[in-house]
Amino acid sequence: MTEFVLIHGSWHDGALWEPVATHLRDAGHTVHTPTVAGHGVGVDKAVDHADCVASIVDWMLEADLSDVVLLGHSYGGTIIARVFEEIPERIRRLVFWNAFVPAPGNSLLDEVPPHYRELFSQLAAASDDNTVSMPFPIWREAFIQDAPLELAQSTFEQLSSEPFQPFVDKLPLTRFYELLPTVGRSYINATEDTALPPGEWGWHPRMSGRLLGARLVQLPGSHEVMFTAPALLAQKIIEAGRD
Amino acid sequence: MTEFVLIHGSWHDGALWEPVATHLRDAGHTVHTPTVAGHGVGVDKAVDHADCVASIVDWMLEADLSDVVLLGHSYGGTIIARVFEEIPERIRRLVFWNAFVPAPGNSLLDEVPPHYRELFSQLAAASDDNTVSMPFPIWREAFIQDAPLELAQSTFEQLSSEPFQPFVDKLPLTRFYELLPTVGRSYINATEDTALPPGEWGWHPRMSGRLLGARLVQLPGSHEVMFTAPALLAQKIIEAGRD
Amino acid sequence: MTEFVLIHGSWHDGALWEPVATHLRDAGHTVHTPTVAGHGVGVDKAVDHADCVASIVDWMLEADLSDVVLLGHSYGGTIIARVFEEIPERIRRLVFWNAFVPAPGNSLLDEVPPHYRELFSQLAAASDDNTVSMPFPIWREAFIQDAPLELAQSTFEQLSSEPFQPFVDKLPLTRFYELLPTVGRSYINATEDTALPPGEWGWHPRMSGRLLGARLVQLPGSHEVMFTAPALLAQKIIEAGRD
Which of B141, B148, B197 sits opposite C215 (nearest CB)? Predict the structure, then answer.
């Protein structure tokens, strides 16, 4: 039995884990799916990366969780790397699922290709609250291309605007890389994930390779396999999270 | 219901799509499989790339097709890129299946590794009609390695010699790259396709990456999965071609 | 019916092929699984690479085997490359399964990333018989990450210390590369194999690409899929080994 804490990515909130969490619970595991500060519908979007991290650290301390497998999806990778810096003693294993593992000192923006950097900056500037909204064509073609159109549309309606400042903040991650050899670490890669373009800017092995011999687990599917194949993803999370 | 136009690759003709076309039709779709000029058995091989393109454009105009999903396999990628330049208003989505997406100004020969360039040139020079015949060992080991030997042999007997001039002709593709953002575009990649050697000269992400955020669909199999797994390929063509 | 000779990798011996060999025999094939000199429990570890090669060549001559499909796993790739140099006339096809195909003049150590080079050298220096013992965390996370913990542990107990000198010996391989075009050659790649880190130092296409258009066969799984999915590996060995 494993205690999982699942940290969602950009445009998502904790409630969207439900299909995956149900499969994990059915397999006998405990699952927590907190929402990161500034994420979800109808909340204050004026947060920076430190606020996002603090919201999860505070929540874990209040819930007094320990010996957890902490998983981050996409942007959530930047959160779990920082949470691990703050409370490493409570974390048994880190699991990055098509997630950012920023190089020391980099922001998330530094880790995406130039055309995404420009697009996100323009969308934030055009918003009235410094957020980035997901354009449907990108969602449908690059994030959830393995879904029928109806599922692509219904999940799109559940997304929320993403605060931009956490994309911009630089993350030293000095302690993260110091402590990394002391913790279990896994990388889950969906082989058709094109949220980052495959190749030079791809997730794997660029991000996975920074984890120093992490356990690699792969599955077919897009960046949003949590919606298109939740049972398979749950199985791979179990394989990534076990001892 | 989608209207598919499937453009075959080198050494093939339209009739060889039959197993795939049958599965697509069984799923309720309309399928056309024209043969490109200079291709097939017993036809005049003295064609250039423009002749090949014109043969498909003329055929589509005569059949008065519109709103089609136009798919190209291998060499067929050079054809659909050019057909799209000529009659973009008739095309709903381009699907490249392990197909060439030539960089602006390149010929097909410019896009293959030097040892293939040399081999094709030698074979054409040794022929009496400036064509390239497929050597069986390359067919068996690099194109259809997932088939039993019997299927490799029976399909080999259905191949025809390939006109060489269309490999040599340079393709500006100025209008193709200008119009690309306005059309749906997908790339299907068979993960064991070694018709181009994996890595620096491979199909994916080298070719797929030129399509600016195209929808990626992958399946296991060789370059000739149309013969070795036609039902699976048909399913992936549907996923690549839907809205 | 094919006659297979399977050459194990480092830390393994011939007996560990049993689950795979059983599946191959059930499919009607003949299978031999000799142990390389200096490998296994309770044997003299003072061997160099030439001793390892000679032990297999001598065994094949004594058994008077010919027309065999010779497969090497991992380190076993360096053995089959050299055995082929010595008795090419007895070999129908070479199959490298996530195996080293050393560049001309290289040792195995030259082909692994610097941190492995350093680790193996340190472990050998710290041993009393110039051998390298497999650390359990590397076995569990990088070699057999697709196994449940119990299988990772039970297989770990079957490993034996690896003689270091064969890692160090330079292999000219002049004749190997000269004769390579004359023999059937296949590369089997398990897509989650992280015994070599994916990317710049990975198995595929770095090693497979040296085989000049070898037949590529892939399967999901780790470096030790012989333990985690022996039936599937046997099926892929058959696909790799057939004409």
Answer: B141
Which of A204, A213, A239 is the closest to C146 by Cβ? A239
The CATH number of residue B123's host domain is: 3.40.50.1820
Tally Cβ neighbours within 10 Å of residue C86. Answer: 16
| Residue C214 contacts B, CB cutoff 8 Å | yes
Q: Is A242 on the interface with C (CB under 8 A)?
A: yes
pTM above 0.90, yes or no: yes
Handedness of CA C201, C202, C207, C209 (dihedral sign): negative
B119/A143 Cα distance (integer angstroms): 40
* Domain range enclosing B210: 3-241
Q: Do C149 and A239 touch (CB under 8 A)?
A: no
Closest-CA residue to B96 (of B75, B71, B78): B71
**A57 to chain B nearest CA, in Å?**
36
Tokens linked to C165: 């000198």
User: What tokens does B242 get?
Assistant: 């839907």
Residue-wise pLDDT for C27-59, tens only, equals 999 999 999 999 999 999 999 999 999 999 999
- Of residues A141, A148, A198, nearest to B204 (C-beta): A198
User: Which stretches does DSSP call E strand in chain C?
Assistant: 3-7, 30-32, 68-73, 91-97, 131-132, 162-163, 184-190, 215-219
Q: Into how many domains does chain A fold? A: 1
Q: Which residues contact A31 (CB under 8 A, 6 or more apart)?
A: A4, A6, A17, A21, A24, A25
DSSP codes of every residue in B37-102 = TT-STTS-----HHHHHHHHHHHHHHTT--SEEEEEETTHHHHHHHHHHH-GGGEEEEEEES---P
Q: What is residue A243's predicted lDDT score, i.e. its pLDDT?
A: 96
| pLDDT tens across the length of chain B (243 residues) | 999 999 999 999 999 999 999 999 999 999 999 999 999 999 999 999 999 999 999 999 999 999 999 999 999 999 999 999 999 999 999 999 999 999 999 999 999 999 999 999 999 999 999 999 999 999 999 999 999 999 999 999 999 999 999 999 999 999 999 999 999 999 999 999 999 999 999 999 999 999 989 999 999 999 999 999 999 999 999 999 999
Residue C205 in contact with partner chain A when CB distance is under 8 A? no
For residues A39, A41, A44, A48, the Cα torsion angle rounded to the nearest 10 degrees is 20
HSE on the CB side for B203, CA within 13 Å? 23
Residues A232/A218, Cβ–Cβ less than 8 Å: no
Q: Is B242 on the interface with A (CB under 8 A)?
A: yes
Nearest CA in chain A to C190: A218
∠ CA A63-A178-A80 to the nearest 5 degrees?
A: 35
ipTM: 0.96
Length in residues, chain C: 243
Which of A215, A217, A232 to probe by mutation at the C interface, max C CB count within 10 Å? Answer: A215
- Cβ contact (<8 Å) for C149 and A215? no
Task: Kindly report, residue by residue over B109-160, the tens digit of the pLDDT.
Answer: 999 999 999 999 999 999 999 999 999 999 999 999 999 999 999 999 999 9
Q: What is the pLDDT of residue C185?
A: 98
| Mutation to test the B interface, candidates C185, C207, C211, C215, most B Cβ within 10 Å | C215
Query: Which strand ranges, in their side-by-side order, compose the sheet holding C184-190?
Result: C30-32, C3-7, C68-73, C91-97, C184-190, C215-219
Kindly report the nearest CA distance between residue C142 and chain B, in angstroms: 23
| CB spacing of C214 vs B146 below 8 angstroms | no
